[in-house]
Amino acid sequence: MEKIALVTGSSRGIGKVIAEKLLLEGYTVYLHYCMNEEIAKNTYMDFLKRDLKAKLICSDISNEEEIKQMFQTIQEESGYLDVLINNAATGVHKNITDIRKRDWDFTFEVNARGTFLCSKYAVPLMKAGTKGYKAIVNITSTGSQRFIPGYSLIGGTKAYIENLTKYLACELSGYGINVNAVSGGLVETDSLNYFQDKKLVMEEFIKRVPAGRMVLPEDIANLVLVLCDSKSEMIRGQTIIVDGGASLV
To answer: What is the pLDDT of residues 39-55, one digit of tens each?
Structure first.
């Protein structure tokens, strides 16, 4: 049976690269997006032109009913799911004293609750497939553990996801589902545009990081691919950091 994967937030950035890696490994991949339909369709058409088995799916993962409908669609079209990559994330960059209730709600509804609900509704589909290796990989960031100015809300959601990863790994092991998280350092994506001094931030990072360069989306995706393989079955409930050694110095 062909392997089926869902990568949330995969029209661009890290999610797109993860989806591409899985597609090149022969997976049928559901490319998920929420808002920017044009970018999503361009990514989808690019994959189709390369004869890769991509499918496009839209859902607001802050909305439980839309999440349920997304998995219902996958069930109707494919019947099962082998891999879930919880990558979709958003959030408000503000200092703590400037955060409003709606900022908190928005960030936690998408990042924390969305990851939880996607994992929950993926389980029946993962149980429905073959008895082969099944994996959930959550994408977090080192902002869950280290201070980043204006990142308290998003960092809080990432810390929750890392804790959720441990509980999912224990509770879902009986279903043959392995769960881990990949924590990225400062990754060269559009998210760097949130920093006012983007160029300076990048220069300072490269100066002090042992690897001597920025983390690329491919670096994250390469590890995700490893964790989707049965050779990783003894890695469970872990948050693995990909930051070029930045957290060591």
So the answer is: 999 999 999 999 999 99
